[in-house]
Amino acid sequence: MSSSTAALRAVPTPARNLEIAMRNVSHAFQLGGSRLPVLENINLQVARGEFVALLGPSGCGKSTLLRLIAGLDPPTQGEILADNKAIGAPDPSRILVFQDPTLFPWSTVWRNVATGLAARGVLEKEKARVDDALKLVGLTAFARAYPHQLSGGMAQRAALARALVNDPELLLLDEPLGKLDSLTRLSLQAELVSLWQDKGFTAILVTHDVEEALLLSSRVIVFTERPARIKAEFRVSKPYPRHRDDPELVGLRRQVLATLGLPT
Amino acid sequence: MTEASQLLGAGAASAPHPFPRPIWTAGFYAAAAWALAAVVTVAFPDVVPWGSRELFAEIVGAGALLLGGFALAAPASGRLREFLDHNGPWFIAIGVWLALWEITTAKTGWLPKPFFSPPNGLLNVYMTETNRLGWCILYTLRLWALGFGAGVVLGYGGGVALGWSKRFAYWGMPILKLIGPVPATAWIPVTFYFFPNTFDASVFIVALSAGIPVAILTASGVGSVDPAYYDVGRNLGAKSWYLIRHVAIPAAASHTFVGLFMGLYYSFAVLVVAEMLGAKYGLGWYIQFQTAYSGYANVYATLIIMAVLCAGIVKLLFVVRDRLLSWQKGFI
After folding, report:
1. Between 3.40.50.300, 1.10.4080.10, 3.30.70.920, 1.10.443.10, what CATH number should domain A2-93+171-259 receive?
2. CB distance B235–A70 less than 8 Å?
3. Closest residue of B to A165, CA-based?
4. Complex ipTM more than 0.90, yes or no
5. For residue A14, which phi and psi values (nearest 5 degrees)?
6. Nearest to B327 among A92, A96, A106 (CB)
7. Mean pLDDT, to the nearest integer, of B139-161?
8. Backbone angles phi, psi at B111, to 5 degrees
9. For chain B, how big is the Rg over CA atoms in Å?
10. How many CB pairs under 8 A join A and B?
């Protein structure tokens, strides 16, 4: 798998990316004294540089899985490995991009993007990387703007720059385009693919948009309703850039929707 | 008065210009009102001498000339013009107020000495008591700055700790909730026992009054920060100290400022009370001292100073807040 995706990309420098393995991962929340299971026995392997989409009914627990991989919460059962090491805490090599940009409203765009470098005390030496990241997402002109002055798409681009400035080896995308208008969505989908091809990081995308999953990812994992279990898996071998009307993708879309129990 | 009516006449005559100059009409009425106050002050004798009559008339007369000048030659636009247009009614009201004030006190004695004073009586206090009032202002500002400063620093530090640390909140919150509602002045009897002198005791009382609202509001601000911000910070490699400094504190800033404003008003209230207890100088002390000798003109004069000082400090805090919280508003 990893070799086939690598063939689709032109990577100038050796890409820094992680291999993720989930082993018998289960998770439950305590809600008012009762136990609410959200993930059940998830076994999933994500190869280096792979782009995997997690698809399922909303509220099924996909976002929880991303939080576990990011290390923000520990799983109730099972373990998640990054390059064969158990994930115990958050780390800037694995960055989660939320559905809301969650930029700090009290800081400028530049300062927001610089957060990771500043938090690790390396900002002074690596200021240029902030400028590069802003350039990468086309926000150079807005470096000194405040988040409330950005449109939804620009804010999400800034959030992406804030992640990319840390050179993540794994990008966890939690419906990052879910709240954007459809035109912004289309352009950001294309940008995500080219960033991924360019940087070579491993990417895991949570979405409930079948089309988006098929356009972006090399593998689509379909989950059941809560508690989420893996229901099916689809490989998407179509080379990029992909077109939504491509007969192969249309066929896959029909299959995925059928798996989800929806009219095709 | 005649001068004012001439000015009014001139204004009416210049109205039908080919390009109508934007005359500051309210300025004429204001100049008239001020001139009236000046004329009333010098033209009629005082029932009891108050002093500084001529000086007062000169100041108000100069004000009338200035207003008249602006009425004729005010710039057509710009910030000065906006200021004049906006405040015109107030200038008129002040002139009328001064004239009525002179008439009811110095000229007719309807509002008698010593309980009331004409405006020139207050001016006389400023002229004769300049030195002593100056020292009182400095003493009061010193007490306020030390008390408010100490209270804000400790209250803010405590508030951040209470909002951030569960263990700190476990022990601190109940105590703060118990002590917080007690008026700071209620502590006066015991503070005199615990502090070596009245000044330190006064500083403590002012600090307490300012510190508690700052602590409570900051704690609630830090406690109500959207946890998603912390997730973002942690994910990007931030440790606790960075999260406190760069997430919790700025996110709680608008709460903190509410606490600062509350603390400011409490500290003013407590300041005067504290100064009335065995202080040797200060505006609160001066008010009490003069009240005992029926020096009500001095009391009014001091009240005006306090009003200006307090309003000035409040204004200053607004400026600081607007600067620090500018990210909340659109300002492109």
Report:
1. 3.40.50.300
2. yes
3. B236
4. no
5. -55, 125
6. A106
7. 95
8. -105, 100
9. 27
10. 72
